[in-house]
Amino acid sequence: QEKSSRLSAALFGEDCEISHDQLYELFKYAALGRCHSATQPSWCRIYHQSHLAGVVVIVVQEMSQLHFYKFYLQFKHLRKVFRHRFTLTPSANFLASLYGEGANLKPQNTAQGLTSTSSECIPKSSDLQCDPIIRKYGEKKRGLTSYTLTLEEQKKNDYPIKGSPGCKGYIYTECDQQRTDSSPLFGLDCEMCLTAKGNEVTRVSLVDAQGQCLLNELVKPESTVVNYRTRFSGITKKMLLPVKTRLPDIQTRLKKMLPHDAVLVGHSLNADLQALEMIHPSVIDTSLLFARNEGRRFKLKFLAKAVLGKEIQCEQKLGHDPAEDARAALELAQFFIEQGPAKVAELNLEMLLTTEKLAEVSQNKAALQPQGCRVQKQLNEPPHLSKPCFLDCLQVTGQKPLLLGRQELDSSGLCQSNLSTSNKQILQRALEDVPLSTFSIIQFSLGPEYVASHLLAGLFEKVRSKLTDMLTIYAGPFEESFCLKSVKKEFGRCGPIQSLTVVTETYQPYVCIQYEVLEAAQLAVESLNGAEVAGSCIKVQRPVTAAMLDCDVLIKELELDVENESVIYVAGLKKSLTETDLQEEFSQLKGLETLFLPKDLQTGKHRNCCFLKFQKSQSAVDALEVINGWTMKGSKLRSRNALASGHLWRWIWQMNHSNGKQGGNIFYAKMEQLSDSEQDLRKKVKKLDQHIKKLYRSLQNNTLCVVLFPGVN
């Protein structure tokens, strides 16, 4: 539940199910933004990601959606605060799939017996002061004009300068308008060949701030080519044979394309401008921007990988792609400007470069070993997993991932437990450590004693039985010769009926109706109790059982659930109406955001009801007054507040279509034991809800918080 930055998830009704890959997309983009090629998740959207203070993932081990709905009333905080709710598809190895396969976690055992994991590659704040980037720019974020080279810096780094003796005959871009922090950025890169004259341009690429390629042109040198430098330039004699474009043509085109306040970005851009024989007053040079000690410079290929997570200048390709290089330089400058010097310094690029060089040495040594040795080593090693580790990505970008809880991942990705740790200890450590981390995974646990198969089977049966009772109503008494068809028609106006049977054990006949949705049963109780149906004044009520004594409380709490507060239920629709028809009919309702038309998940047939979701809860209240009694295509509509519009709707359908009782004889044999365990479990759930509440309230504004119930299978 975000507090300022906004998460929009357009999933509704039957679509409220996501996979671990989709969850991984969310975490990756929330933490990394545009780094490491992270993109907006395919199933939801995060607005203002750069404003996020951090991401906190709370994992409640051994707990599933079964526990959430069994102890719905106990989860007072959880159900009132977290407005987006989804079914997570099962995973064979939950933790490994969450963190990314091959996660390199090194637990640090603490005095309290906690498992705490954090990045070892993050420099301390005292070390940051010595970083050349901080020494050059300070720690605060600045606009792009703070990073353009001064005239002195251009002279020092051999940039072509207007009026300089060595730049006679050079073309001036005439981009003299004053630069601001909103001036447009353009990435520029050239490939050169060695000619009798020296370095001459053979290819030019220009990209705009969105990464769109504006120019990618081959250029024929004026002088005879001495060396095409094909390995680096990718240019061959054959490629240049048909080319008619000359340097003056490119100079003219560039001059026309660049706005008067354009800022050119490139890596060692001085070489490109010298080869182009052009002078431009405002440049950002990424080889100087990412400052190093003693005048050394990072290569563009390394920066693209370490900062952006992109592979460029791959060995498989013939030569460099200037458009790719121009885009990489541009994105590096954008990253630096958006994140600021402090974030860039936290990347600890020097250490990453050293690590990369050591890895290359290691690989070279392995290549020199006899083939048999290499094969044996590969056989002894676990198979390489292609999915990148999410926490490794975080560490590369200077984030501080934290894993805190009873369980840790060993080298094989399996969970190891440390049962000496209590949830209270984990909470205390989380309150201390989470504010220091930008990505935290906090694991609470029910305990292994609550995951026995007979206990889970018993819980499942209790939840299924209660939901069935809530979906069921009894109506009557009716006359002996009452018309069943008219009864079915009248009660069908409240919503889709799962089954209808006549009760004959009573003095006068009653009907037992089981609906497919909770709203239909509640609507029948509210609108038809005391009404005249099939010639009789009838009473409508739910079954009276011990489990149903708190039904009214549960219904009221479901109405107040944040997932339902802006949603209404509408029944009495003709089945011939399509979703398009309904959208047209309801378009006059103010603030309508989306419409969900339930259908049988097996046959795909639409039901005679729908859910309408509004942008604001007041719009939903206003719509209820308009719709009740509204006639659509000759059918009178009935409506009320939604009870199970999203995630619960799908789950009820699945429970209704499950194969009977899952506990069997084991369930009944263990009923007494289940009752005792359930009391303990209820207390434990209430305590966990309080822990989550405390942790949530301690979070900074703009923190994305996700709670996961992974279950045991």
TrEMBL record:
Coiled-coil spans are: none
The UniProt keywords, alphabetically, are: Exonuclease, Hydrolase, Nuclease, RNA-binding
UniProt GO molecular function:
exonuclease activity; RNA binding
> Per the database record, which ranges form the RRM domain?
471-545, 566-644
- Gene Ontology cellular-component terms listed: nucleus
Q: Which Gene3D superfamilies match?
A: 3.30.70.330, Ribonuclease H-like superfamily/Ribonuclease H (3.30.420.10)
Q: Does the keyword Nuclease apply?
A: yes
Q: Which InterPro entries match?
A: Nucleotide-bd_a/b_plait_sf (IPR012677), RBD_domain_sf (IPR035979), REX1-like_exo (IPR034922), REXO1/3/4-like (IPR047021), Ribonucl_H (IPR013520), RNaseH-like_sf (IPR012337), RNaseH_sf (IPR036397), RRM_dom (IPR000504)
Q: Is Chloroplast one of the keywords?
A: no
Alphabetized Pfam families for the sequence: RNase_T, RRM_1
| Superkingdom, natural source | Eukaryota
Q: What protein name does the entry list?
A: REXO5 exonuclease
Gene behind this protein: Rexo5
